[in-house]
């Protein structure tokens, strides 16, 4: 069997970019993907809804929350697409860190987000999904946004 | 007679709307043009496209550079400004992909409108300027660029964001 990547190296970054582009898709499929991600996330951590009161987090199907979903996916899309441009990636992660700093997101909620993401992306990719590459590269992004 | 006059007015506004709104056909065209330019697989392409738009904007409106001092607008190659360019154009990407869901798009546009209202010095006229920059840059990168469809849908997005600005 091929070696399991234990870090987010150059090749892992290219693969995650490619798999993300396929999973994220375009137009309405982005809404389907985003809704599945957030339903998965709130099933894992129902209390996390409280963090999203100002964007109608109690109803993921509301237009307000759907718009919020697309903003989050947009940020994720930017971060993933910059995985192979370290300088710009770090500038973007610093920007996202500022936006998240005062929101009081517990460490375990970052883990929940990762678990939910790694659970729904394979719905689009099937068995081609590279779990280890995603696990390592998402951690690079999350650590950049959390600052720890 | 009153009714007839009303009918004429409605017919006229109806036809002018048809010329400028972002129709389903327009939005399909915009999707087609845009997806060829902005895929997550091609970072280098994204940064070059986004930078080119701002370079075009700064070329024709040097006074606009100062609006972006927080993100080093005076150095278009700095990581801070590159990340900024990608954020702005990625914001457009989100809007373009929501054209098929107008109710959600409107929520997102009002969020973006609020973000721009907080920035001192940003005026509605700046959105006309950046619209021109997109019209200059897009044909150079987009396959078979359709300026009318692009203009209608870009206008629908930019007008909503700039509606509350001076």
TrEMBL record, chain B:
Provide the taxonomic classification. Eukaryota, Metazoa, Spiralia, Lophotrochozoa, Annelida
Protein's name according to its UniProt entry: Extracellular globin
Question: Which is a Gene Ontology cellular component entry for this protein?
Answer: hemoglobin complex
Entry keywords, A to Z: Disulfide bond, Heme, Iron, Metal-binding, Oxygen transport, Signal, Transport
Q: Which residues form the Globin domain?
A: 21-166
The organism encoding this protein is Sternaspis scutata
Record-annotated disulphide pairs: 22-153
Instruction: Family membership, please give it.
Output: Belongs to the globin family.
A GO molecular function assigned to this protein is: oxygen binding
Instruction: Write down the InterPro entries for this protein, in alphabetical order.
Output: Globin, Globin-like_sf, Globin/Proto, Haemoglobin_extracell, Mb-like_M
- Pfam families named among the record's database cross-references: Globin
Q: Which residues form the signal peptide?
A: 1-18
Annotated residues that bind heme b are located at 116
Give yes or no: UniProt keyword Glycosyltransferase.
no
The domain of life for this entry's organism is Eukaryota
């Amino acid at each position: 069997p091929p070696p399991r990547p234990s870090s987010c190296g150059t090749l892992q970054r290219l693969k995650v970019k490619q798999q993300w582009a396929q999973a994220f898709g375009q137009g309405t499929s982005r809404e389907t993907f985003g809704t599945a991600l957030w339903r998965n996330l709130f099933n894992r951590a129902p209390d996390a809804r409280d963090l999203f009161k100002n964007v109608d987090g109690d109803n993921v199907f509301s237009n307000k929350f759907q718009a919020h979903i697309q903003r989050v996916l947009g940020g994720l899309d930017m971060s993933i697409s910059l995985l192979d441009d370290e300088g710009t990636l770090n500038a973007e992660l610093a920007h996202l860190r500022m936006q998240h700093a005062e929101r009081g997101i517990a460490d375990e909620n970052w883990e929940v987000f990762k678990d939910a993401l790694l659970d729904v992306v394979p719905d689009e990719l099937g068995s081609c999904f590279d779990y280890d590459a995603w696990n390592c590269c998402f951690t690079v992004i999350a650590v950049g946004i959390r600052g720890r | 007679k009153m009714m007839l006059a009303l009918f004429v007015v409605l017919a006229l506004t109806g036809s002018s709307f048809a010329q400028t709104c972002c129709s389903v056909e327009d939005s399909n065209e915009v999707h087609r043009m845009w997806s060829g330019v902005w895929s997550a697989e091609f970072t280098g392409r994204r940064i070059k496209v986004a930078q080119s738009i701002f370079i075009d904007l700064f070329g024709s409106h040097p006074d606009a550079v100062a609006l972006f001092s927080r993100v080093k607008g005076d150095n278009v190659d700095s990581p801070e400004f590159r990340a900024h360019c990608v954020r702005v154009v990625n914001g457009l990407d989100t809007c373009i992909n929501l054209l098929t869901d107008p109710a959600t798009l409107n929520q997102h546009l009002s969020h973006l409108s609020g973000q721009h209202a907080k920035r001192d010095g940003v005026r509605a006229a700046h959105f006309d300027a950046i619209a021109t920059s997109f019209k200059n840059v897009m044909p150079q990168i987009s396959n078979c660029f359709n300026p009318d469809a692009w203009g209608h849908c870009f206008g629908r997005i930019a007008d909503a964001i700039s509606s509350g600005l001076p």
